[in-house]
Design goal:
By secondary structure, the protein is an alpha+beta fold. The protein has 2 domains: about 30-35 and about 125-235, no CATH class; about 55-120, no CATH class. About 35% of the residues lie in helices and about 10% in strands. It contains 9 helices and 9 strands. A 3-stranded antiparallel β-sheet has the order 2-4-3. It has a two-stranded parallel ribbon with strand order 1-7. It has a two-stranded antiparallel ribbon with strand order 5-6. A hairpin with an 8-residue loop joins strand 3 (about 80) and strand 4. The longest helix has 19 residues, at about 155-175. It is globular, with a radius of gyration of 19 Å. The chain starts with about 20 loop residues before the first strand and ends with a helix.
Length: about 240
């Protein structure tokens, strides 16, 4: 079964989405390769934001690791606080009373060249890619942006890979009980990213040898989330 048609475009005043001013997310397979590289730390996400600052104004905490010394040097110490449940040295950058990142000045990132890895890898297209929904009540600006993205599927591989990512997201949502400790997503972003990381386990072939989405055994998913397997795929 193929992916359903998605009407995308500009939200009207009542929240309905129209075909006008649709946002092209690009060919799915091309996006997926870039997203995987970003998650491996090989490159930043190349998002066609075109002036959108939804992710910077939606009350999001930004994690900064201890080795991000250049980033930490450009953020005032009083804006950094220890990240809960993470080793010492990991910090979070919060937001102001309006939900805006304090590094956002005059509608632009004031430390863009030194921004955290979290910001470099963030790509809101991961939500329509995985089918994971953003809460309209908590993050309305991101939710509106996400509804406007539309992926192209110029090849069979694009379509099957997109279905595999969505199948992985459904598995995470419905079978969280089989996920290893410490890997269960705590929010929508983690859920969507985990689907990208796991999607390869949902790729296979049908009886005719054509690429198809398959249902892996739970153990295969657990192995895919093991530190050894993830290190091997990062190296590859």
């Amino acid at each position: 079964m193929g992916l359903p048609s998605v009407v995308v475009g500009r939200p009207t005043d009542d929240g309905e989405v129209t075909q006008d001013n649709a946002l092209a997310a690009g060919a799915f397979s091309t996006w997926l390769v870039g997203m995987q590289r970003a998650l491996r730390g090989e490159a930043g996400s190349d998002v066609p934001c075109d002036g959108c600052t939804a992710c910077c104004t939606s009350s999001q905490f930004v994690h900064i690791a201890p080795d991000e010394t250049e980033t930490l040097a450009h953020i005032p110490a009083e804006l950094q606080f220890p990240a809960p449940r993470l080793p010492r040295g990991n910090v979070l950058l919060g937001y102001d009373e309006d939900g805006r990142c304090p590094m956002l000045v005059d509608g632009a990132c004031s430390i863009y060249e030194h921004r955290p890895k979290t910001c470099r890898t963030y790509d809101c297209r991961v939500f329509p890619a995985s089918g994971v929904e953003v809460d309209d009540a908590d993050q309305p600006a991101i939710a509106r942006r996400v509804r406007r993205w539309h992926f192209d599927h110029p090849t069979e591989a694009d379509r099957v890979e997109h279905e595999a990512v969505r199948a992985a997201a459904r598995f995470v949502r419905e079978r969280g009980d089989v996920l290893p400790d410490g890997t269960v997503p705590a929010n929508a972003t983690q859920h969507a990213v985990l689907a990208v990381l796991l999607h390869h386990r949902f790729l296979g072939h049908d009886d005719t040898g054509r690429p198809a989405v398959v249902e892996p055994e739970p153990e295969a998913v657990r192995v895919a989330l093991s530190p050894r397997d993830r290190s091997r795929r990062r190296a590859g």
